[in-house]
Amino acid sequence: xxxxxxxxxxxxxxxxxxxxxxxxxxxDEEETLKTLRAYREVINGLVGEHxxxxxxxxxxxxxxxxxxxxxxxxxxVRIQEELERRNAGLPEGRRMQFRIAINLGDVMxxxxxxxxxxxxxxxxxxxxASPGGICISDSIYQQIRNKLPLGYEHLGEHxxxxxxxxxxxxxxxxxxxxxxxxxxxxGPRARSRRRATVAAIMVLGVVVAGIAVWLxxxxxxxxxxxxxxxAFSQVVRPTRHFRxxxxxxxxxxxxxxxxxxxxxxxxxSYGRSNDAFSTVYHTWRRYNAAPYLSxxxxxxxxxxxxxxxxxAYGRFEKAGTLPVGSVLAKDSFEVTDRGDVVTGxxxxxxxxxxxxxxxxxxxxxxxxxPDGALFGTTNGESSERVEFCVECHIAAGAERDHLxxxxxxxxxxxxxxxxxxx
Length: 422
Ligand code: HEC
Hints:
Blueprint: E1 8-18, H1 21-27, H2 29-49, E2 53-56, E3 61-66, H3 69-88, E4 98-110, E5 113-115, H4 117-125, E6 134-137, H5 138-144, E7 151-158, E8 167-173, E9 182-183, H6 194-204, E10 240-243, H7 252-270, E11 285-286, E12 292-294, E13 300-306, E14 327-335, E15 340-343, E16 346-351, E17 363-368, E18 374-377, H8 387-393
Parallel strand pairs: 4-6, 7-9
Antiparallel strand pairs: 1-3, 1-4, 2-3, 4-5, 6-8, 7-8, 10-15, 11-13, 12-13, 13-14, 14-15, 14-16, 16-17, 17-18
């Protein structure tokens, strides 16, 4: 009973930290610190307004305590709303988003600082929140669920480092349509319910703040589906090739000129991965006339290649099920608001023998980062990271073999100079 005399109290702990802080710092230290300082002020102000107190915050993190879970969650929602509003005024690459987690627990107080499992759990749960999103532990959920106009998604049990018991986690849904709803979610033990959740979210049309990925408007019958931050948003930006003058007004021909200038370098850096296709995909036939902006693939300019086995891809909607050995490759580059041209990820779909992954029509999805690092590959390294590919591509439907094809205005049959038409 050594700690008998240390004062304790029951509090809601809010932990927040910046998404991609080191990338932001790497790109522009001064601007990043300026934004961080401004955003911290916003957070401090809102914490105060909700009867809370910031008790710690090193680097890019903020920790606050609240006597009331309801106030803590209200505060978190306000923080994310306010920061989203401010981010909208910044160029895309300079936006700073926070992940927030809230947990309730009995903590020790020493010289104004708080200690204990409850604090550690809050800090750990942050990583489960989407950028711009909020996660809460079950202890908070039980206190607030009927008291706020919010929805919740059950994320299942998560084990937390150095904590014996797993913690049940919920994601807070702020869209008005979600209010009062509890969605089954995608905890490690709730995978089979995931599809239902995605469907439920589509029906609700829930729009959750975050770096959302949207299906493009040309896809008939599809409601925007967000909920997850796209892994595309985590892509690092190692190579800046050059800068263009008026990035917003890039026409197809300009995009093609840019692409021609950087393609060899792009291929060389993808080639640092061990993926055999990454060094040869550019010799396959290309099916788009010029690089076009793909909202679903991280708002980057993309190109679509298919190997010989995947020739039917050129019949687009009439392609049917592609044969085993078909490989589709999509490289990408980004032109930032400032006009910087930077390589984006390379994504691949390879048709594997039946049984490989029936849920995903046996496609192996792979994503390679612009610097050649493997982000993940289905049933291989970091397989879980590319599950979001399957989840979106499934929406294309089995009769289309989970393929979306290229928006019509960008299609061509034989533009790749290295591949003559048949
Ligand atoms: C939010 C939905 C979404 C996600 C997530 C997504 N894709 Fe796609 N993908 C599309 C759409 C829509 C197209 C076709 C239009 C385009 O190019 O934007 C496409 C096209 C493709 C193509 C060309 C074949 C085709 O369907 O026409 C490949 C290859 C591909 N995606 C791979 C991936 C990989 C690998 C991932 C995960 C790292 C991924 N996609 C994640 C929506 C998505």
